[in-house]
Amino acid sequence: MDLDDELAEIRRRKIQKLMQEAQAPKVAEPMGNGVVNILTDATFWPTVQKTKYALIDFFGEWCNPCKMLAPIFNELAKDYQGKAFFGKIDIDRNPRVTTQFGVQSVPMIIAIHHGKPAGKLPGLRTYNDYDMLLERLIAA
């Protein structure tokens, strides 16, 4: 094999690799693992500051609307895998972060953009409401 053949083979492999990368789905949020992650006062900020796009559910174990939100949030986490991070934090067990956000009623969804608060959505909403919030957040 002469030098020209070697260069042609290198080019061929490089083009093949670039084509595979172009066809692979883009991951907008590396921490978007497809599940709702449990956060605490200790893990909240270190985790959230690593995210690009996140929705955080502030909830109470005793809250019926919060229980109704759980399957909606789980579905969103699956649908937005690789696009957004989903977390939830118990307000009774994590008073520091709850106070920092001024959460006085639950459920309370906080949108995070590049590690910083970007909006709130209080109360139980439909899948479509959270979906629209995420679409706006990601498009921003």
3D shape: elongated
> β content, as a range?
15-25%
Please tell me the total number of domains.
1
The level of helicity is 40-55%
- Looking at this structure, what is the CATH superfamily? Glutaredoxin
CATH class: Alpha Beta
Overall mean pLDDT: 92
Q: How do the SSEs run, as a string of H and E?
A: HEHEHEHEEH
> Radius of gyration, Cα only, in angstroms?
20 Å
The CATH architecture can be given as 3-Layer(aba) Sandwich
Q: Look at the helices and sheets and give the structural class.
A: alpha/beta
Largest sheet: 5 strands, mixed
Give a structural overview:
This protein is an alpha/beta fold and 140 residues long. It has one domain (36-139): Glutaredoxin (3-Layer(aba) Sandwich). It is 44% helix and 21% strand. It contains five helices and five strands; from the N terminus they run αβαβαβαββα. The protein has helices at residues 3-23, 44-48, 64-79, 95-100, 127-139, and strands at 36-39, 53-59, 85-90, 108-113, 116-122. A five-stranded mixed beta sheet has the order 1-3-2-4-5. β2, α3 (64-79) and β3 form a beta-alpha-beta unit. The chain is elongated and about 75 Å long.
How are the SSEs placed, and which strands pair?
Layout lengths: L2 H21 L12 E4 L4 H5 L4 E7 L4 H16 L5 E6 L4 H6 L7 E6 L2 E7 L4 H13 L1
Parallel strand pairs: 1-3, 2-3
Antiparallel strand pairs: 2-4, 4-5
